[in-house]
Design a protein that fits this description.
- The complex is a heterodimer of chains A (330) and B (241).
- Chain A is of the alpha/beta class and 330 residues long.
- Helix content of chain A is 37%, strand content 27%.
- Chain A has a 6-stranded mixed sheet with strand order 6-7-8-4-9-10, sandwiched between helices.
- Chain B has 241 residues and is an all-alpha fold.
- Chain B has one domain.
- A two-stranded antiparallel sheet of chain B has the order 1-2.
- In chain B, a hairpin with a 2-residue loop joins strand 1 and strand 2.
């Protein structure tokens, strides 16, 4: 029994190429941004650009640095080193100019007022806001606009937070885990209203751990783990990068040395006689096995979803850098 | 400033709906005044009705500006409301400024009502300038209590802020001489409190129309200390709210 990791030599490296493929000044730009808490590197040398009109998902396991990155972007925390620019200015002034609308997991609401009163208040603070009634409709909260904020359900509260993020008609919308606490139907409504926002030319950055959401809603995915950017590309590119397919078969005896040299191989797992290979080119991998004279049994080829791609990318990173780091954080 | 005022208006309309707030800033002082004002006695050289008017008006401002703010600020910091506001175009200090302004506005009715009771129920009679001087002195107390409330609200979490608030509140009201005039050792214990300075200045104005410099300096020093504490508390938590 053993697990082997191969590098990404055979997979394209979209990190540099994707950003270069789009023109225009970036809406947001992280330049080698780090946030350290003592020995803990919550964010570690993050460099990325967001362009106008993109819908970008920030994807990563818990503790990957998603929230810290968004906090720094929104001027709630200061980077230990590096620089963040938004609309050509620093985050604080960009937020104060009303060009950013945001919804955080940790963002609370003012109690003892009605939903309409709260939305009106935040609307008044923005330079060129949406009419309050339009915001209420868009966020799907018009039917409980006269209820008190502190008497709402979790999903309703989340929609009110969303209303506060969009009421200013800001150019950039930042959402941290927006659909947490929403049921399936609410989540669907949420994304359809979000698509209206994007259709109006807004840039959207959202953090999520629902991979399906990232796959469906985003046109670009940033995978981060341990505060570093691991992958940056379209959902299709991310899947391909992680090894798009899984090939499994039984083989007796197993020659691990030989298997590790297979073309297209991204990840190899062997359990007794069961071989599981993640590969960027399942045809080439399988032919190489057959060409070498092996006759594997129970051959299965399945395509990976984004979820498995995500797990593969972060697992690879954990295996390479994990142990020393885990010791520091615990 | 427009945004800060909008937030202040929202805070005021919140408080107007809050029964607890109304009870402690208005109903309790009014009730105590109705019960005790006609005590046949004196306090700090003035009639008991006049002394107790000062005491109960100060009691209203203390509970309105201090108790109310410590607990709310701490809770709203924990709930993330302060974070949410920081994501809006509001200036960074708007939350604190709005809280202080709200207290300055919402303690006015409690001062006015107790003073009206003093005039028409307690039969306190004095020239108009003395009424104004006393009201303004007590009203300035709002600013001092609100500053301390900001410092504690930002520094303490909701669980620990409650007992600290109650302890400070009782100390300031009892040993500051809001409930009864103190003398001897008890007076020594409380004569440094901001509430004591307020009562002394007011009763001095009522009694002989002049004030002791030491009490005025005392008020200014307390305000300076609490304001500095508040600024430090707000700054030190900038990364965690």
């Amino acid at each position: 029994m053993g697990q082997y990791q191969a590098g990404y030599a055979t997979a394209p490296s979209p990190v540099a190429s994707y950003a270069a493929s789009r023109g225009g000044a970036p809406v947001v730009s992280f330049k080698n941004v780090s946030k350290h808490y003592g020995n803990l590197h919550a964010v570690d040398g993050l460099t990325l650009d967001l362009r106008h009109g993109e819908t970008v998902a920030l994807l990563g396991p818990n503790g990957a640095g998603k929230s810290t990155s968004l906090d720094m972007l929104l001027a709630l925390r200061k980077p230990t080193s590096g620089r963040i620019e938004m609309f050509g200015s620093d985050p604080y002034h960009a937020v104060k100019s009303g060009r950013v609308g945001a919804m955080l997991q940790s963002g609370g609401l003012m109690p003892e007022v009605t939903v309409r009163e709260l939305v009106s208040l935040i609307t008044k603070l923005h330079p060129k806001p949406e009419p309050v009634e339009t915001t209420l409709k868009r966020a799907g909260i018009a039917q409980f606009a006269d209820q008190r904020v502190d008497r709402l359900s979790g999903g309703q509260t989340q929609r009110v937070r969303f209303a506060l993020a969009i009421c200013g008609q800001s150019e950039l919308i930042v959402l941290d885990e927006p659909t947490t606490a929403m049921d399936v139907e609410t989540r669907r409504l949420f994304w359809s209203s979000m698509k209206e926002e994007v259709a109006e030319g807004r840039t959207l950055l959202f953090a999520t751990h629902y991979l399906e959401e990232a796959d469906q809603a985003a046109d670009r995915i940033l995978v981060i783990n341990r505060g570093r950017l691991l992958a940056d590309g379209t959902p299709a590119e991310i899947k391909q990068r992680a090894g798009a397919r899984r090939l499994s078969f039984k083989l007796d005896p197993v020659d691990e040395h030989f298997l590790l040299g297979l073309p297209g191989l991204v990840n190899l797992e062997v359990r007794h006689d069961l071989v599981q290979i993640q590969t960027s080119d399942s045809d080439a991998t399988l032919y190489a096995v057959l060409d070498a004279g092996y006759r594997p049994r129970e051959i299965e080829v399945t395509s990976l979803g984004l979820e498995q791609a995500f797990i593969a990318i972060t697992a690879e990173d954990d295996a390479t850098n994990g142990n020393a780091y885990a010791g520091e954080t615990s | 400033m427009g945004g800060t005022l909008a937030l202040t208006r929202a805070e005021i309309s919140r408080l107007r709906r809050n029964k607890r707030y109304m009870i402690f800033t208005i109903a309790v002082p009014v009730m105590f005044y109705l019960i005790f004002a006609k005590t046949n006695s004196t306090g700090y050289g003035v009639s008991f009705a006049a002394f107790y008017m000062v005491g109960m008006a100060s009691f209203g401002t203390l509970s309105g500006a201090f108790n109310n703010n410590t607990i709310r600020i701490s809770q709203e910091r924990k709930d993330g409301w302060i974070r949410q506001l920081r994501l809006t175009p509001l200036p960074a200090n708007a939350y604190v400024v709005a809280k202080v302004l709200t207290s300055m506005v919402t303690t006015v009715p409690s001062i006015l009502i107790v003073f009206l009771l003093g005039r028409f129920y307690g039969h306190v009679q004095m020239p108009i300038w003395k009424w104004v001087a006393c009201a303004v002195t007590i009203w300035i107390g709002t600013l001092i209590f609100a500053a301390l409330a900001v410092a504690l609200g930002y520094k303490l979490n909701p669980d620990s802020v409650q007992p600290v608030t109650i302890a400070v509140f009782f100390f300031f009201s009892i040993f500051g001489g809001l409930w009864f005039a103190l003398s001897g050792a008890l007076e020594k214990l409380g004569e440094f409190t901001p509430t004591y300075q307020i009562v002394q200045i007011s009763t001095d104005v009522i009694g002989h129309g002049s004030v002791a410099l030491v009490n005025v300096i005392g008020l200014v020093v307390w305000f300076a200390i609490f304001a500095v504490l508040a600024i430090f508390a707000v700054r030190s938590t900038a990364e965690t709210v």
